């Protein structure tokens, strides 16, 4: 079932913030296609929002490898909005260049797919506050703006 506002794609939809983003789009009147890595993850998300799943306003797209060329081509078809939250996280990998390269490749991949979709009206990239402030406790309670940037991000989780 489509909605008046159209279809939104949310990547990383089975993560904490991703799932809340899915819910926010649904409450705002969008239908949502949730991009997830594996079919087993779908049941948790669909089960958490059963009325939306039953009505057809919540569906899933399986994207097993966000770094694969064309990985998002099918998922972006027909969408009006994209919220990109997905990043492959591997806490055992301490090589910052590899972690950043993987995150960058996934983001560029979805952007490549997005530019092919003529109905797309908006694209939002979401990241962690750790990317801006690192894990430094001195910044607790501070309000950050577009002017803030962390030139010293060395924490692998902060740059993913």
TrEMBL record:
Q: Which residue intervals define the domain NAD-dependent epimerase/dehydratase in the entry?
A: 8-138
Q: Which InterPro entries match?
A: Epimerase_deHydtase (IPR001509), NAD(P)-bd_dom_sf (IPR036291), NAD(P)_dehydrat-like (IPR050425)
What would you give as a GO molecular function for this chain, any one? oxidoreductase activity, acting on the CH-OH group of donors, NAD or NADP as acceptor
What residue range is the signal peptide?
none
Q: Which UniProt keywords apply?
A: Oxidoreductase
Family from the record = Belongs to the NAD(P)-dependent epimerase/dehydratase family. Dihydroflavonol-4-reductase subfamily.
Name of protein: Aldehyde reductase 2
Source organism per entry reads Colletotrichum shisoi
């Amino acid at each position: 079932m489509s909605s008046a506002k159209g279809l939104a794609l949310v990547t990383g939809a089975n993560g904490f913030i991703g799932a809340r983003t899915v819910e926010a789009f649904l409450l705002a009147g969008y239908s949502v296609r949730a991009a997830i890595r594996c079919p087993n993850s779908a049941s948790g998300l669909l089960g958490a929002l059963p009325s939306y799943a039953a009505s057809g306003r919540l569906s899933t797209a399986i994207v097993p490898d966000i770094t694969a060329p064309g990985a998002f081509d099918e998922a972006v078809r027909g969408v009006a909005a994209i919220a990109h939250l997905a990043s492959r996280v591997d806490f055992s990998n301490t090589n910052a260049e590899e972690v950043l390269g993987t995150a960058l490749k996934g983001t560029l991949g979805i952007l490549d797919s997005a530019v092919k979709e003529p109905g797309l009206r908006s694209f939002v990239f979401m990241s962690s506050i750790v990317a801006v402030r690192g894990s430094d406790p001195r910044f607790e309670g501070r309000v950050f703006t577009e002017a803030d940037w962390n030139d010293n991000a060395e924490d692998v989780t902060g740059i993913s």
